[in-house]
Write a structure and sequence with these properties.
It is built from eight helices and no strands. It has 137 residues and is mainly α. The protein has one domain. The longest helix is centred in the N-terminal third of the chain and has 23 residues.
Protein backbone atom coordinates (compact mmCIF):
# COMPACT_ATOMS: atom_id res chain seq x y z
CA UNK A 1 0.00 0.00 0.00
CA UNK A 2 1.21 3.51 -0.83
CA UNK A 3 1.34 6.65 1.24
CA UNK A 4 -1.74 7.52 3.30
CA UNK A 5 -3.94 10.44 2.26
CA UNK A 6 -3.11 12.41 5.39
CA UNK A 7 0.65 11.93 5.04
CA UNK A 8 0.58 12.74 1.33
CA UNK A 9 -1.34 15.97 1.89
CA UNK A 10 1.01 17.03 4.70
CA UNK A 11 4.06 16.22 2.58
CA UNK A 12 2.77 18.11 -0.47
CA UNK A 13 1.87 21.17 1.62
CA UNK A 14 5.34 21.13 3.20
CA UNK A 15 6.95 20.90 -0.24
CA UNK A 16 4.81 23.81 -1.43
CA UNK A 17 5.72 25.96 1.59
CA UNK A 18 9.42 25.22 1.05
CA UNK A 19 8.98 25.99 -2.65
CA UNK A 20 7.31 29.34 -1.96
CA UNK A 21 10.00 30.25 0.56
CA UNK A 22 12.75 29.26 -1.87
CA UNK A 23 11.22 31.36 -4.65
CA UNK A 24 10.74 34.42 -2.47
CA UNK A 25 14.32 34.18 -1.26
CA UNK A 26 15.61 33.89 -4.84
CA UNK A 27 13.53 36.70 -6.28
CA UNK A 28 15.74 38.97 -4.17
CA UNK A 29 19.10 38.50 -5.91
CA UNK A 30 21.00 39.91 -2.91
CA UNK A 31 20.27 36.69 -1.02
CA UNK A 32 21.50 34.53 -3.91
CA UNK A 33 24.68 36.57 -4.29
CA UNK A 34 25.33 36.29 -0.54
CA UNK A 35 24.81 32.52 -0.32
CA UNK A 36 25.95 31.45 -3.79
CA UNK A 37 24.99 28.21 -5.55
CA UNK A 38 23.38 25.64 -3.28
CA UNK A 39 23.17 22.58 -5.56
CA UNK A 40 25.07 19.87 -3.68
CA UNK A 41 25.42 17.80 -6.85
CA UNK A 42 27.05 20.70 -8.73
CA UNK A 43 29.30 21.56 -5.79
CA UNK A 44 30.46 17.94 -5.60
CA UNK A 45 30.81 17.04 -9.28
CA UNK A 46 31.15 20.40 -11.01
CA UNK A 47 28.25 19.41 -13.28
CA UNK A 48 24.72 20.80 -13.11
CA UNK A 49 22.03 18.40 -11.92
CA UNK A 50 18.93 17.73 -14.05
CA UNK A 51 16.96 20.30 -12.07
CA UNK A 52 19.58 23.07 -12.16
CA UNK A 53 17.98 26.24 -13.48
CA UNK A 54 14.51 25.37 -12.20
CA UNK A 55 14.40 28.28 -9.78
CA UNK A 56 15.52 30.74 -12.46
CA UNK A 57 12.97 29.16 -14.78
CA UNK A 58 10.13 29.71 -12.31
CA UNK A 59 11.19 33.30 -11.67
CA UNK A 60 11.25 34.00 -15.43
CA UNK A 61 7.80 32.42 -15.77
CA UNK A 62 6.45 34.51 -12.87
CA UNK A 63 7.72 37.61 -14.69
CA UNK A 64 5.90 36.48 -17.83
CA UNK A 65 8.97 35.45 -19.83
CA UNK A 66 7.77 32.03 -21.00
CA UNK A 67 10.57 31.33 -23.50
CA UNK A 68 13.32 32.30 -21.07
CA UNK A 69 11.66 30.15 -18.40
CA UNK A 70 11.62 27.13 -20.68
CA UNK A 71 15.20 27.72 -21.80
CA UNK A 72 16.47 27.80 -18.20
CA UNK A 73 14.82 24.47 -17.44
CA UNK A 74 11.50 23.10 -18.74
CA UNK A 75 10.96 21.41 -15.36
CA UNK A 76 10.37 24.88 -13.93
CA UNK A 77 7.00 25.00 -15.70
CA UNK A 78 5.90 21.76 -14.03
CA UNK A 79 7.18 22.87 -10.63
CA UNK A 80 5.50 26.27 -10.82
CA UNK A 81 2.30 24.63 -12.00
CA UNK A 82 2.41 22.34 -8.98
CA UNK A 83 3.05 25.24 -6.62
CA UNK A 84 0.01 27.02 -8.03
CA UNK A 85 -2.44 24.12 -8.36
CA UNK A 86 -1.63 21.70 -5.53
CA UNK A 87 -2.45 23.90 -2.51
CA UNK A 88 -5.88 24.78 -3.95
CA UNK A 89 -6.52 21.14 -4.85
CA UNK A 90 -5.59 19.99 -1.34
CA UNK A 91 -7.66 22.77 0.24
CA UNK A 92 -10.64 21.67 -1.87
CA UNK A 93 -10.21 18.03 -0.81
CA UNK A 94 -9.85 18.89 2.88
CA UNK A 95 -12.76 21.35 2.84
CA UNK A 96 -15.16 19.02 1.08
CA UNK A 97 -13.79 15.78 2.59
CA UNK A 98 -12.70 14.45 -0.80
CA UNK A 99 -9.65 12.44 -1.77
CA UNK A 100 -9.28 13.38 -5.45
CA UNK A 101 -5.62 14.39 -5.10
CA UNK A 102 -4.78 11.12 -3.35
CA UNK A 103 -6.57 9.18 -6.11
CA UNK A 104 -4.68 11.20 -8.74
CA UNK A 105 -1.34 10.58 -7.00
CA UNK A 106 -1.98 6.85 -6.62
CA UNK A 107 -2.98 6.57 -10.28
CA UNK A 108 0.06 8.58 -11.38
CA UNK A 109 2.35 6.42 -9.24
CA UNK A 110 0.98 3.24 -10.85
CA UNK A 111 1.28 4.69 -14.35
CA UNK A 112 4.84 5.95 -13.90
CA UNK A 113 5.98 2.62 -12.45
CA UNK A 114 5.21 0.88 -15.77
CA UNK A 115 8.35 0.33 -17.86
CA UNK A 116 6.76 1.71 -21.03
CA UNK A 117 6.18 5.01 -19.20
CA UNK A 118 9.18 5.07 -16.85
CA UNK A 119 11.82 4.65 -19.56
CA UNK A 120 10.63 7.51 -21.79
CA UNK A 121 10.37 9.76 -18.71
CA UNK A 122 13.90 8.78 -17.71
CA UNK A 123 15.08 9.52 -21.25
CA UNK A 124 13.45 12.97 -21.12
CA UNK A 125 15.13 13.62 -17.76
CA UNK A 126 18.50 12.57 -19.18
CA UNK A 127 18.03 14.79 -22.25
CA UNK A 128 17.18 17.69 -19.95
CA UNK A 129 20.34 16.96 -17.98
CA UNK A 130 22.41 16.97 -21.19
CA UNK A 131 20.76 20.29 -22.09
CA UNK A 132 21.80 21.72 -18.69
CA UNK A 133 25.39 20.53 -19.18
CA UNK A 134 25.47 21.89 -22.74
CA UNK A 135 24.23 25.32 -21.54
CA UNK A 136 26.92 25.34 -18.85
CA UNK A 137 24.56 25.98 -15.96
Amino acid sequence: MGISRKNLYILIMLFCMVGYTWLVMHIDSRWVNFVGPICVFKKTTGLPCPSCGSTRSMIALIHGDFLKGLSWNPMGLLLLGGLIVFPFWLLHDVTFKKDSFHVFYTSLEKTVSKKQVAWPLLLILMLNWCWNIYKGL
